[in-house]
Amino acid sequence: MDQHSAPDIALDGITKRFGDTVAVDDVSLEIPKSSFFAMLGPSGCGKTTTLRMIGGFEDPTEGRIELAGQDVTRVPPYRRDVNTVFQSYALFPHLTIERNVAFGLQQKKVPKAEARKRVAEALELVHLEGMAHRKPNQLSGGQQQRVALARAIVNRPRALLLDEPLGALDLKLRRQLQLELTRIQRDVGITFVHVTHDQEEAMSMADTIAVMNKGRIEQLGSPTELYERPRTAFVANFLGVCNLMEATVVARHSDVVELDTADGARLHVAADRVNGSAEGGRLRVGVRPEKLRLAPVGQASGTNVLRGHVTDASFLGVMTHYVVQTAAGASLTIVAQNDGGEGLELIGPGREVDVTFSPKHCFVVEEEHDDA
Fold this sequence. Notes:
This protein has 372 residues and is of the alpha+beta class.
């Protein structure tokens, strides 16, 4: 493979077993150069183990790992052109910020003048240029995480591995650093591989997300693709709230697929939103809460109309959160923006309503079965 065209990171059939437990199960993926890539999933899904294998901290039981087209499967961490930023900052408390950042350069015997220049550039990049002579205990948690980031970037690795680096920070600071990490990645052009269990964090930062479940990649795609067109119920529910309704295909047309729900309601889904693998079996029609609309009974228009009654209505400032129970027993979550429109304030708990949504806002996933 031409190293100039090779992805920065390629995994081919990577499997990791710990005794009888399969932590990572036959994972293959390619991460392009200069991309921001996220591995997203619940605890125990295999994302951190995968990251540790990329970094060389764990050896795969099977499979191959390549960096820029070179096989590094059995290469130790210190010989791989990657750096890792962990949730714990792991700074040297007795060294200044400048010397913490310069530590890796000293190990590589980079000339002092060049090291000072690169340290200054790294601290400027993370907005800590005035704190070079402070000690870590004089900085906030967010500032210490920036130091850890600067220390990793100053070595100019091919890829930077981020193992839930924002997990120890409070919500406001975490959101601030999400924006900072995105800016830094674009400025330096280094490939970032970010492990997180926070779907909002992954969606706001990454170009591409691998959603992992039980050691495998459930779906790989852009944040928009995963949110708007999830292929499985797991992905649909992990990336935000999702309404899923069981239905059966009854007719197919060039532009729309017709399905019937358990209570006999007829739903229409845009044909390009029905995954080929999901056609013909027991299906679930999905639609996000913000895509649903409420109307008093008899006042709804459109091709998809479900009858139900409001069981909960919560005013949340910018929006109102509704729960509607349909005739078939499905519980639907609806989010209505408080944009000054009239009528919705009249729909409270106990009221019978119609729920409507567009065929182009639906997606279809296969009925899931337990692995038994």
